[in-house]
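Backbone-to-sequence.
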């Protein structure tokens, strides 16, 4: 059994030389792209678990006194994997700090999706003289078909984040699904209202109906179209658009 495990470890290390990762415990340790990374300063780790049927693009950027948004990790993850990223600890002072920002985008795979990016900002304190201080932040992603106005929902417990990415998410007011709210969306709401008023079949699918009902009264009418236009106008002028 030991020989088999040793052979497997050797095989993984060989792959590491080509693709910059190696197996550690039950996750795959990723090599940082940050040139000045010092493994002796590591005092934490981030573990990202990717759903079975979709790949992911994972990045970690770093703010420090030396620069902002500096690439720290950049990795394309395979479906169903668990990936570990070592993080250097630092003091929280003006001249010695590091603020890390994790970004995960689910893309491709059997779902053939490109999700909105999930981001989280964190720090890791520099207390290497205390072994119990090592912190591991876990990010577990899943995919579902829940109808929701959010691209994803997050539940938090201690150092674990469970991120449920919704395939059937929608943006309120974005009826045509092009990622923005415009006059075309207001027109779509009016066309749907006209169809309903004359007893014609609906012109929208289930997701579009959710998006069109901006006043959330359970029906699509001229007031929804008007509110979409008002929102679009505010967005186009001062950027302070609101559904309130």
């Amino acid at each position: 059994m030991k020989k088999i495990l040793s052979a497997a470890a050797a095989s993984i290390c060989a792959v590491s030389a080509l693709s910059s990762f190696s197996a550690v415990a039950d996750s795959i340790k990723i090599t940082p792209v940050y040139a000045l990374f010092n493994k002796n300063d590591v005092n934490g780790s981030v573990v990202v678990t990717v759903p079975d049927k979709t790949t992911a693009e994972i990045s970690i950027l770093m703010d420090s006194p030396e620069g902002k948004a500096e690439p720290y990790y950049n990795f394309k993850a395979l479906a169903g994997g668990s990936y570990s990223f070592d993080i250097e600890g630092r003091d929280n002072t003006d001249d010695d700090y590091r603020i890390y920002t994790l970004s995960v985008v689910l893309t491709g795979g059997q779902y053939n999706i490109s999700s909105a990016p999930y981001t989280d900002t964190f720090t890791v304190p520099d207390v290497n003289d205390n072994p119990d201080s090592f912190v591991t932040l876990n990010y577990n992603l899943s995919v579902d078909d829940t109808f929701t106005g959010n691209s994803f929902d997050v539940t938090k417990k201690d150092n674990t984040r469970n991120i449920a990415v919704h395939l059937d998410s929608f943006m309120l007011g974005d009826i045509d699904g092009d990622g923005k709210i415009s006059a075309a969306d207001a027109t779509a709401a009016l066309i749907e209202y006209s169809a309903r008023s004359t007893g014609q079949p609906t012109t929208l699918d289930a997701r579009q109906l959710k998006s069109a009902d901006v006043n959330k009264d359970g029906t699509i009418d001229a007031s929804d179209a008007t509110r979409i236009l008002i929102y679009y106008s505010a967005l186009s002028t001062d950027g302070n658009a609101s559904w309130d």
